[in-house]
Amino acid sequence: MAKKNVAELLVEVLAEAGARRMYGVSGDSLNGITDAIRAKNQLQWVHVRHEETAAFAAGAEAHLTGRLAVCAGSCGPGNLHLINGLYDCHRSRVPVLAIAAQVPSSELGSGYFQETRPEHLFAQCSHYCELVSQPEQMPRVLEIAMQTALSRRGVAVVALPGDVALRDAVERAPRLRFPEPKPKVCPSDDELTGLAEILNASKKTTILAGAGCAGAHEELIEIASKLKAPIVHAMRGKEYVEYDNPFDVGMTGLLGFSSGYNAMMKCDTLLMLGTDFPYQQFYPERATIVQVDIRGEQIGRRTKVDLGLVGDVKTTLAALSPRLPAKTDDAHLRDSLEHYRKARRGLDELATGESKRNLIHPQYVARVVDELAARDAVFSCDVGTPTVWAARYLTMNGERRLLGSFTHGSMANALPQAIGAQVSHPGRQVVSLSGDGGLAMLLGDLLSLRQLQLPVKVIVFRNDSLAFVELEMKVEGLLNAYTELENPDFAKLAEVVGIRGWRVERNEELEASVIAFLAHPGPALLDVRVNRMELVMPPHVEASQVIGTALYSAKAILGGRSGDVLELIESNFLE
Ligand SMILES: Cc1cc2nc3c(=O)[nH]c(=O)nc-3n(C[C@H](O)[C@H](O)[C@H](O)COP(=O)(O)OP(=O)(O)OC[C@H]3O[C@@H](n4cnc5c(N)ncnc54)[C@H](O)[C@@H]3O)c2cc1C
Ligand SMILES: Cc1ncc(C[n+]2csc(CCOP(=O)(O)OP(=O)(O)O)c2C)c(N)n1
Ligand SMILES: [Mg+2]
User: Which of 443, 466, 484, 533 to mutate to test the pocket of ligand 2 (most atoms within 8 A of CB)?
Assistant: First the structure.
């Protein structure tokens, strides 16, 4: 058998395990690996311009496919650049393997050129992070890393010195050849009986459903129907919960709907299903709270919990259902749905092309994109106001997907996530809702769209500011400072780098431009000048009135209409 080196073995093991590609930027300590990729032709090397992009892109691929995705950085600064993207992947619990190349093994500990200590640097954003210091460790360390990323859902890092990668492999083949285990996890009978007793005794149950409801739509709807329970979703649950859902009353939280907030606050029992919704202020204080999560350690993190069960949502609800007779009293559900209809109508009224000063409402942009995008489009939204518009105006339908940096909350996520989405789903329409601040932060990877021939559609919400931060400053009673952005014409900039560009400054132009932009076969950018001051303090609500009661609540409702704000304050804080 021909000699195989460690790098070749690494590529083979990854390919056998189902990895399709590696995102990264090459560099000397990675040369063994990139050369093995080139020679073996089992993995695609996706060459981006910044390693942070590589990590975000891998995270997007992992989120969309549920499979292991891989990124790599060369030694020292090369892999250090991965770190923010890896934090995002880890906190979003998507299975990503990072290869952190290391300086030559004989130099370790000498403060050598580009020497860092990946085992320390990545410890906080990974479940597993180990150095391969001799060929005998391969492929075992790599396999443990992959198993850990997949089974614990998150990041694993393998640090590999460039010289070790080029040494002869000792073991010659992958050791683990089995599909990813997919156990069903069900609480015990006693626990299910206890849960059923609480729910059967409750008069007003509300469900808070999160990303853990993925794949359990049918069961979720059945339980809500039996309990006559409105379903509120947390942001990461939006793509799995909101569609085909007659019990949907919107999102809660800082960017939520007043109806989501109300349904949570007015219930006597809150059933949390697969959610880690982080904002304590938005949980009811007096209700009985029951929580189902696949991870025991998640239970009771955000609020007091009266009963916590470890189980996957699908299996747990299927086992619970026969214990629940259908309720007949649907007053709480009807109230919540009515409230939702009003809140929804209010938000829809903001999303029009009518405006006194011909300013384009960003809500209108989001609505038009929502209406014109493909049935199975993949959207990514930047942290900042694009997250608000995505939460409120993108309609999910079970086929569309939504990517964001929802847990880590990093700017500049949307373009790199769109890259990962498009590379892994070549036929799908991929739309990045980018902030002007966010796009600029990883602007270099606009070039990747051209170089990799990725037909990503980038919409820039050009408000010439860090608008989300301006809003925060306003709420905190601070004067705006350091939020101004002096922007170029992004459409022209796109054209210069070989991407089709559109610029829209007037409401009347928007729809036709979006149609042409989405229909363009290659990469395209749409620069829309949107109203910067969209999220304003309603004039007749005193800041002190709200801030004195709950600052977070104030933030939560600022994005809504003044009517919603007053209603929310009156019904929830000033009662
Ligand atoms: C600018 C900004 C503003 C935001 N504002 C809001 C807001 O107003 N409202 C809002 O909701 N969010 C908001 N977010 C997002 C927020 O930070 C959280 O990321 C989000 O609320 C979490 O959603 P989740 O609970 O669905 O997902 P996660 O936090 O991912 O929690 C999922 C839970 O499900 C569990 N789980 C996974 N699989 C299963 C399974 N099969 N069975 C059972 N359990 C399972 C996991 O262990 C985990 O505990 C905002 C983010 C940004 C960036
Ligand atoms: C890496 C990073 N830096 C800073 C922040 C703080 N922050 C959150 S939103 C935001 C503004 C985003 O601006 P832009 O992309 O233009 O979106 P806008 O809110 O203006 O629509 C900032 C600076 C962050 N979340 N992440
Ligand atoms: Mg901006």
Answer: 466
Catalytic residue among 70, 313, 383, 460: 383
Ligand 1 atom 29: residue of nearest CA: 276
Distance 381 CA to ligand 2 centre (A): 12
| Closest to 419 measured CA to CA, from 439, 392, 391 | 439
490 assigned to active site: no
Global pTM?
Answer: 0.94
Ligand 1, atom 13, lies closest to the CA of: 235
**DSSP per-residue letters across 419-441:** HHHHHH-TTS-EEEEEEHHHHHH
Of 426, 213, 428, give the one whose Cα is nearest residue 318. Answer: 213
- Taking the C-alpha atoms of residue 218 and residue 222, their distance in angstroms, rounded to an integer, is 6
Given 8, 12, 96, 114, which residue is catalytic? 114
State the distance from the centre of ligand 2 to the C-alpha of 297, rounded, in angstroms.
31
Ligand nearest to the CA of 441: 2
Of all protein residues, the one whose alpha carbon is nearest to atom 26 of ligand 1 is 210
Task: Please give the chain's pLDDT, 575 residues, in tens.
Answer: 578 999 999 999 999 999 999 999 999 999 999 999 999 999 999 999 999 999 999 999 999 999 999 999 999 999 999 999 999 999 999 999 999 999 999 999 999 999 999 999 999 999 999 999 999 999 999 999 999 999 999 999 999 999 999 999 998 899 999 889 999 999 999 999 999 999 999 999 999 999 999 999 999 999 999 999 999 999 999 999 999 999 999 999 888 889 999 999 999 999 999 999 999 999 999 999 999 999 999 999 999 999 999 999 999 999 999 999 999 999 999 999 999 999 999 889 889 998 777 889 999 999 999 999 999 999 999 999 999 999 999 999 999 999 999 999 999 999 999 999 999 999 999 999 999 999 999 999 999 999 999 999 999 999 999 999 988 887 777 888 999 999 999 999 999 999 999 999 999 999 999 999 999 999 999 999 999 876 533 333 334 434 433 443 444 444 444 444 444 344 333 32
Alpha helices in 202-312 (DSSP H): 217-227, 238-241, 258-265
How far is the C-alpha of 10 from the C-alpha of 536, rounded, in Å? 53
